[in-house]
Amino acid sequence: MSEETEEYNASKIVVLEGAQGIRKRPAMYIGSTGPAGVLHLLYEVVDNAVDEAIAGYCKNIHIRLFQEEGCDAAEVSDDGRGIPVDIMPKYNKSALEIIMTTLHKGAKFNDEVYKISGGLHGVGLTVVNALSVYTEVRVMKEGSEYYQRFEKGLPVTGLEKRGSAGGSGTVVRFRPDPEIFGSPKFDSTTLRERLSDTTFLNRNLRITLVDERFEQKEEIVFYSENGLVDFIGFLNKEKQVLTPPMYSKSSGERAEVEYVIQYNSSYDERIESFVNTIKTTGGGTHVSGFHSGLTRAVLNYVSRNKLLDKYKDLKITGEDVREGLSAVVSVNMQNPEFEGQTKEKLGNGIIKNFVEAEVYSFVSRYFEEHPQFAKTIIEKAVNAANVRESARKAREMARKRSILDDTVLPGKLADCIESDPDKTEIFIVEGQSAGGSSKEGRDRNIQAILPLRGKILNVEKAGFERIFDNLEIKSMIASFGTGISESFNAEKVRYKKIIIMSDADVDGSHIRTLLLTFFYRYMKKLIELGYVYIAQPPLFKISKGKEISYHYSEEDLNLRIKELGGDVDVQRYKGLGEMNPEQLWDTTMNPEHRVLKRVTIKDAQMADSLFSILMGIDPAQRRKFLHDNAEQVTMLDI
Fold it and tell me: Per residue in 369-383, pLDDT tens?
């Protein structure tokens, strides 16, 4: 090190103000600069319009997606009161310009204009403005239209009065900056889910989404007349429901809670939670209060009616009470405290007691008025407790005789040399032939191979204890090193890439679904951490002379044939076993060339309804699904 010490004084301090600071550290404000960050910009604009709806002034929101210079852009309009445009004397600027260029400002820091709102930190539109190539705002207010344009967070025009206008409202048009986001694209699938949730939470609000980015323009209208009751019907549309929707809404001094509860025949709990219409994917104190209130009401009813007297030493837990539960919990409150700008988890402690008391009171009253449904819920909880207890006993036996807690890895595992989980990956392969090719073609330093024999146990239908008798599942658990259920510990995972590699046909799809069902039910944390992947093997090989190429779709195949001028040899792969080790390495296993899809919890939740239909206990649902979707099958391997 040099003997000279770099001087550290006031001249070294850099002050970034307004748009400068946001553009320098965008992730501080929107979470990331990936696809989620691009959508976050749009959400900030939409949420402002939704706040107008919550306040009772907006009935319609219109969202238009389009393209400019190869990048996605958006325009959001509403029929609310319109952003204020009058001059703020302290700053000698219009309120609109202050809102668009200054952090921590707005009408949501007091309770006069917005009693309840999703935008709380006063940074939303400023961040959108700073991270966009341009932002244009039109305001219709008091019979006139006003306009102002900004570029990269800075005003390039003053506030212009553009003549008369009927009605009131705000139009915000912006294009996310490729300097920040690369090639910004709005994920329409995620956006539609968000808009659907929004209209469920705000009954009679109409949101129209028009997507003009592709050849065929799409227009979707989101609207709900019955709010959360419609929402729970949507969540359970593929489930066998056991109770009607149990709906309640109540208000306290500074908050209100609205929720709906419905039980189905599955083994899972699914709670969608919101605060001021913002989805709290991390839950928080309102969800904790809901859990506590529901559990206390059930246990109190059980105790008061002596419903467990015939079950020796059986105790029902909160987890048992929530088996098969679907619920939507929506809290509207003043001054919510979120963890971070992205608002994923609520932190207000006082809300827990409020929600718990309201839920306990409602469920207790509902059980007294509807004992038949109370009986159904309690019977399901008792069954869950019995299964849990049986599973505990089975685990104790299994620990003595099975591989799960043994340090010995399964003999079928072809392990890798490297032991650092950050550098290693394991391929789960079905079939002896594919297993042999993958073992020969792999990079032995970092890639392990676990071949499976046939299809694994369908855990959708099986009880927990049966997995201890399934050799394929035990092999996976032992190979991953994490244990399972109460003994599960993600920090012990031996590979941080767990790759499902199955054939690109119907059987392969079935195997993937079975494996994802297992991960979702019993190792969900591995999905949440981003450790589970699906390999994408090619469907076709094209040969023309010495030139060989691999293709993953018919569209890609036809395009390549056209480029080559026809007269090509096309081989369709029905299975991984048809590839020699070199081909399997080149197309599916080589980290430099392969295509992997990371499995997300959202993927698993979307697949959950399919799991329930195709693998559940209701054959009528399965027949209906196959009948309704039969015409969509374009290629079927037999």
Answer: 999 999 999 999 999
User: Alpha helix (H) ranges present in 464-553?
Assistant: 471-480, 506-522, 524-528
Residue 383 sits at φ, ψ, to 5 deg, of -60, -40
Residue 258: beta bridge partners? Answer: 249, 330
| Three-state secondary-structure class, residue 64 | strand
Count Cα atoms within 13 angstroms, Cβ side, for 524: 12
Q: End-to-end distance of the chain based on CA atoms, in angstroms?
A: 69
**Beta strand pairing status for 540-544 and 532-535?**
unpaired
Amino acid at 112: E
Distance CA 454, CA 472 (A): 9
Closest CA to 570 of 560, 580, 579: 560
pLDDT greater than 80 at residue 605: no
Under 8 Å between Cβ of 395 and 387 = no
Side chain identity at 569, as an amino acid letter? Answer: D
Q: Tell me, what amino acid is at 178?
A: P
* Type and span of the H or E element at 220: strand 218-222
Q: Does domain 19-222 have CATH number 3.30.565.10?
A: yes
Question: Do 571 and 540 contact (CB within 8 A), yes or no?
Answer: yes
Token look-up 């910009």 returns 41
Residue 618 to residue 146: CA distance in whole angstroms:
58
Give the pair of three-digit tokens for residue 501.
Answer: 């590699």
Q: How far apart are CA 384 and CA 377, in angstroms?
A: 11
What does the CA dihedral 56, 60, 61, 67 come to, rounded to 10 degrees?
Answer: -170
pLDDT tens, residue by residue, 143-171: 999 999 999 999 999 999 999 999 999 99
Six-digit token string for 56: 């009772």
Where in the chain are the domains? 19-222, 228-394, 409-537+577-632, 540-572
Q: How far apart are CA 435 and CA 290, in angstroms?
A: 48
β partners of residue 72: 67
DSSP symbols for 482-497: ---GGG--GGG-S-SE
The residues with which 392 forms a beta bridge, in sequence order, are none
Alpha-carbon distance of 611 to 591, in angstroms, equals 30
Q: What is the pTM of this model?
A: 0.64
**What would be the CATH architecture of the domain defined by 228-394?**
2-Layer Sandwich (3.30)
Task: Give the model's confidence band at 119: pLDDT under 50 very low, under 70 low, under 90 confident, else very high.
Answer: very low
Other C-beta atoms within 10 Å of 262: how many? Answer: 22
| pLDDT score of 107 | 46
Which tokens is 365 given? 């009253």
Q: Which two tokens stand for residue 307?
A: 């419903």
The answer to whether the CB of 232 falls within 8 A of the CB of 245 is yes
Kindly list the catalytic residues: 430, 503, 505, 507
Amino acid at 346: L
Residues 6+ apart with CB under 8 A from 270: 235, 325, 326, 327, 605, 608
Spatial CA neighbour of 188 closest among 218, 230, 215: 218
Strands 169-176 and 160-164: unpaired
For residue 500, the number of C-alpha atoms closer than 13 Å in the C-beta half-sphere is 25
Structure tokens given for 303: 């105790």
Topology given in CATH for the domain delimited by 409-537+577-632: Rossmann fold (3.40.50)
* Model pLDDT, residue 431: 76
Alpha-carbon 90 to chain mean position = 43
Cα 154 to Cα 148: distance, rounded to the nearest angstrom:
11
